[in-house]
Amino acid sequence: MDFQKRINYQGDLKPFLQQVCSDFGIGEYSTYEIVPIGYEDFDLSVGTDKGKYLVKVFRSLRGEAECKRYVGMMESVLKAGVSHPLLFESNQGYLYEISNNGLTDRLCVMQYIEGKNFYELQSTPTVKEKKFIIKQAALINEININPSHLYDQWAITNFLEEYEKKGKYLDKEDRAIIELMIERYNSLSIDDLPHCFVHGDILKGNTMRDKGGDIYILDFAVANYYPRIQELAVILCDLFFDAGNPEEFPENYDLALSEYQKYVSLTEDELIKLPDYVKLAHTMHILLPSWEKAANGNDSSENEYFLRMGRTGLRYLNKIWG
Q1: CB 3.0-4.6 Å disulfide test: which of 1, 169, 181, 184 passes with 291?
Q2: What is the pairing mode between strands 215-217 and 115-117?
């Protein structure tokens, strides 16, 4: 996959990155490596004589307002004490623009975390790490911001709309099981649930363990003002779910609830509806990867991973919860 096609600049990256390093004051450029994770932006680890940095070049489809939104949320998250990589400031501020041949790219520069995310590690967090991750989720959900809404096709709240557009790409068996979720979704009265600022994408690929064992929460690109339980549902469908050992899930579910409620009290309505919300999180991990595979030819290991997790997770939860 040519990740550079996600941005406007298609030339040699060396002069591009030399300018970035100079304007951010992070040292003299020496090397770069592409970070081949995710569906959206163009991420690079960049080495200079001062160290290593993460340069996130926003995909060309993101307009100026969306990029400002993203960087502004990262500032709020860091201010709230969430474990997130630090931002570096350029002569333009945290959000930086660079133009070539009449086309503009926008980017930011962050602390480079030496480590691996849990998708790369192919593992689930330890109990201690799970407790820390849940604390981070609670910190995020208590941030008093309501950013302009950004449509995210993977979001649980967009299930019905996405099913209408992409349900035709499901195989017969998946379609039969997902059709049963339509009634479940309609019964949730989502607009009546407590809402707050939600990361919405705390998955294995966005949760990193550094070489010292510290945990970082990454990628607030699709954070929105959502039903509060959406945060837990997304965490529970991936970071706290092992497709190879699904029988461990009930214990992880109980841990997530008990830890979260040390910081944020859930309503009785939220506690009743969370199981169906977790099912819907798995449902989205069947629907979207199936579409990616059939319509876009996406046969990447990451896409196959989500498809497997979604299929295994939804069927297991139907078995234990009905």
Answers
A1: 169
A2: unpaired
